[in-house]
Specification:
- By secondary structure, the chain is an alpha/beta fold.
- Helices cover 41% and strands 15% of the residues.
Length: 324
């Protein structure tokens, strides 16, 4: 696939006001936008806080091309916005390469961006006919076509159930195997819809939504890399900095909740197995949970359908004594 040309997007950043507010108190420095996308959150943060800079990470060629176009056309972004084309679990390597010791915070918006969903050729959407692709990084070898057409039925059933909480995973996997070869998103959507009992198709949105989500997660190894990326972000955030995460389904939310909960325990129980951990005195607490709106407002959910399933969690690096 050729690198997409940068172009204007219609993506509405989810909970942008709440995200901007959660970074109001962080110390001067760099915020890592680990899922840069079209840069809506990043630009809003830069506009609100002159003391902050943004390091944007994204594995999608479109996102990087669009970011470079933004920087070239907006003088206010030059020197304050830097982007790198990497998966977000490469955050530690990028910081080391740029000689950045600590950051002021990090943002993870784990949703799929509009260009990925709305461009049929990307193969993400059950609403637009296109090739079965779903790769966020077009350099990756594994595509949705390979998952759909080569995975064993049991493996398909497992990933559809695990990645999307789909209760009809076995029926769907069996139908997919029986219908092979499947080459387009429309074909896949039709197979999935036909495999789900008629009464269940009438509730919960498009019947193929969960299966497409599950396959996308598998193609991009989203859940596999999330824990490591969050741990690196927490470990490299300076005292008073914050890590904010927007999740959109239960699999992501479980991982974020667990990583955040573990980080709130006594820091002295941690080991230095990760090269990104910073030593701390025994009895110190690493982080605290920040009270922030968990969900988008009803108004935002009405205006932006992609915000409906979003959930926000925010953690602050403290390094203060327990009980103090």
């Amino acid at each position: 696939m050729t690198t997409p040309k940068p172009q204007e997007g219609s993506h509405l950043p989810v909970m942008v006001d709440e995200i901007v507010e959660c970074f109001a108190s962080v110390p001067e420095g760099i915020i890592v936008d680990a899922t840069f996308g079209l840069g809506g959150h990043a630009v809003a943060i830069l506009n609100a806080y002159p003391k902050l800079q943004i390091l944007g990470l994204d594995q999608d060629a479109f996102a990087i091309a669009n970011a470079e176009k933004m920087i070239a056309e907006d003088a206010t972004l030059k020197g304050r916005l830097t982007v790198r084309r990497v998966r977000f679990d490469s955050l530690g390597e990028v910081l080391a390469e740029m000689s950045i010791g600590q950051i002021s915070g990090a943002l993870f918006d784990l949703g799929v961006s509009s260009p990925q969903l709305d461009v049929a050729e990307r193969g993400f959407s059950y609403r637009h006919d296109g090739p079965l692709d779903m790769r966020m990084d077009q350099r990756s070898l594994l595509s949705a076509a390979e998952v759909v057409n080569s995975y064993e039925e049991s493996e398909l059933s497992r990933l559809i159930a695990d990645n999307a909480d789909e209760k009809f995973a076995r029926r769907i996997a069996k139908a997919i195997v029986a219908a092979r070869p499947i080459t387009t998103t429309s074909q896949l959507a039709e197979v999935v819809v036909a495999a789900i009992p008629a009464p269940a198709r009438r509730t919960g949105g498009h019947p193929a939504k969960r299966t497409f989500q599950a396959i996308r997660i598998e193609v991009n190894k989203e859940l596999e890399i999330l824990e490591r990326a969050l741990q690196i972000a927490i470990d490299t955030t300076k005292s008073g900095g914050r890590v904010a995460v927007l999740t959109y389904h239960s699999g992501e939310n479980r991982i974020v909740k667990r990583v955040f909960s573990e980080s709130e325990r006594d820091f002295n129980v941690q080991t230095t197995a990760s090269p990104y951990l910073h030593e701390s005195q025994s009895g110190e607490r690493r982080t605290r949970r920040v009270r922030a709106p968990k969900y988008p407002s009803s108004k935002e959910q009405t205006l932006n359908r992609r915000a409906k399933s979003a959930r926000l969690r925010v953690l602050e690096k403290t390094l203060v004594g327990v009980g103090n």
